[in-house]
């Protein structure tokens, strides 16, 4: 991530003292900006807003009761070495039950062992999840830093799908840009980071 995008992400982490609680009547909920610096272990993986720095989209919603505004950041997924998917961007997250939330940063399990699915609880460290993050695919389209929306869907007992421009990258400086795809979250795909259908063979359960 370059300096401009780091600044945008840091700005989104700052708590807003004027933010008010979400109405219980809302059919939508909003994901708090997930703070990777928080201590790991499960209890900080709650997707509610209490005690957290608030997602900028969430704050916009509170102030204007309107649609979230695009942040000046592209959609990117870091395929970490032996660890989770770190996703940044203007994300609409569709949960397994169809509920919709918004986020700018998600850390999603891809080893299949988290007890806080869909988020990572560092269970990959106990299970020696070994995938380096290498990407065996080519780009569908050219890279662009223009901000855009992306929809990420959690498929029950299956992969994480995305629709919208997404740059996948890793520690090897590989960069692949795709408009849609399915990312493995059971840890068993032979085509990681993509899903190859192995979750059906292994009986992966995405429930917590
Ligand atoms: S989710 Fe892992 S192979 Fe499909």
Mean pLDDT: 78
Can you tell me the residue ranges where pLDDT is under 50 for at least 5 consecutive residues?
8-53
Helicity level, as a percent range? 10-25%
- For the CA atoms, what is the radius of gyration? 16 Å
- N/C terminus separation: 31 Å
What is the element string, with H for helices and E for strands? HHEEEHEEEH
The total tally of domains equals: 1
Estimate what percentage of residues fall within beta strands. Answer: 15-25%
Topology record:
Elements (H helix, E strand, L loop, with lengths): L2 H11 L42 H9 L11 E4 L5 E10 L5 E9 L14 H5 L21 E6 L5 E10 L5 E9 L14 H5 L6
Parallel strand pairs: 1-5, 2-4
Antiparallel strand pairs: 1-2, 2-3, 4-5, 5-6
The structure holds FE2/S2 (inorganic) cluster.
Task: Tell me what you see in this structure.
It is a single chain. With 208 residues, this protein is an alpha/beta fold. The chain has one domain. The chain is built from four helices and six strands. It has helices at 3-13, 56-64, 123-127, 198-202, and strands spanning 76-79, 85-94, 100-108, 149-154, 160-169, 175-183. Strands 1, 2, 3, 4, 5 and 6 form a six-stranded mixed β-sheet that branches. A hairpin with a 5-residue loop joins strand 4 and strand 5. The longest helix has 11 residues, at 3-13. The relative contact order is 0.16. The site of FE2/S2 (inorganic) cluster (FES) has 12 residues, from helix 4.
